[in-house]
Specification:
- The chain is an alpha/beta fold.
- It has a single domain, classed as TIM Barrel (Alpha-Beta Barrel).
- It contains eleven helices and ten strands.
- The chain is globular.
- One of its GO terms (biological process) is carbohydrate metabolic process.
- InterPro entries: Aldolase_TIM, Class_II_FBP_aldolase, FBA_II.
- Its cofactor is Zn(2+).
């Protein structure tokens, strides 16, 4: 069942769970997410970064839309970190049901103006809008972007930003980074800042950089307004680590139906565990009552 983000996250926000939003880079990851979501009876979000759109081509979205439409659980197709109005318009034309405009590196005033323009365009065709305030960090190996230094979201600015833009969801910076933490300090979330933001903002919040964080911290976020948690690195690491293992042990294998299944299974196990952690497992029934 294909939905827009506003309708999907409104339910999660009210019922204290977060929906996982998973970056896809090929059809194998689409299958991983949908199968995991159906097995866990959980809503899920398939998100595609502009880098991944460039890799896959616009026609790939036709396949993703059909797969999501036929899924037995609620699904959203989301543009991750659209860097321009052009990125957003391309996504809307291709059938995304939600878009992110990331003007977080611009001035506060410009971020408001750009995000407000995207809201006007997207809402006219029933597409949801996520924007970002503050900057998410970026670790080595990530193609999703981010800043060298995290600029934490200010709660008062968040209130003003939401009121002036009319966005549906707000990505906040409370200590996470994109990519792997292997060669960087481990993340530590500012849960007190999250609580302050949640008290002043009345829309669902988004946590980027959901991989490699402490489970006990993640499990607190959806109690304080976070309704969407982005995940990429943990899932992709599991997939490609298993694929490398398989190819080393089976160095003459060349058929995809021989090589892919174990990698897909490894990634799916990670996604299912994350759905448990985000408290989205067995929450799909809320959307059918």
């Amino acid at each position: 069942m294909l939905m827009n983000m506003k309708d999907l996250l409104e339910v999660a926000y009210k019922n204290n769970f977060a929906v996982g939003s998973y970056n896809v880079a090929n059809s194998e990851f689409v299958r991983v997410i949908i199968e995991a979501a159906e097995e866990q009876n959980a809503p899920a979000i398939i998100q595609i970064h502009p880098n991944e759109v460039a890799l896959l081509g616009n026609d790939f979205i036709t396949y993703v839309r059909e797969a999501c439409r036929n899924a037995k659980v609620p699904m959203v197709i989301h543009l991750d970190h659209g860097g321009s109005i052009e990125d957003v318009m391309t996504a809307i034309r291709n059938g995304f049901t939600s878009v992110m405009i990331d003007a977080s590196h611009a001035s506060f005033e410009d971020n408001i103006a750009i995000s407000k323009e995207v809201v006007k365009l997207a809402h006219s065709v029933n597409v949801s809008v996520e924007a970002e305030l503050g900057t998410i960090g970026s670790n080595e190996g990530s193609s999703e972007g981010g800043a060298d230094e995290i600029l934490f979201t200010d709660a008062d600015d968040a209130k003003t930003f939401v009121e002036q833009t009319g966005i549906d969801t707000l990505a906040i910076a409370i200590g996470t980074s994109h990519g792997q933490y292997k060669h960087a300090r481990q993340p530590e979330l500012k849960l007190d800042l999250l609580e302050e933001i949640n008290q002043k903002v009345d829309i669902p919040l988004v946590l980027h950089g959901g991989s490699d964080n402490k489970d006990e911290e993640i499990s607190q976020t959806y109690l304080h307004g976070v309704a969407k948690i982005n995940l990429s690195t943990d899932m992709k690491n599991a997939f490609f680590k298993e694929m490398r293992r398989f190819l080393i042990e089976n160095d003459t294998a060349y058929e995809p139906d021989v090589i892919m299944p174990s990698a897909r299974k490894a990634a799916k196990e990670v996604v299912k565990k994350k759905m448990d952690l985000f408290n989205s497992t067995n929450q799909a029934h809320h959307y059918f009552s």
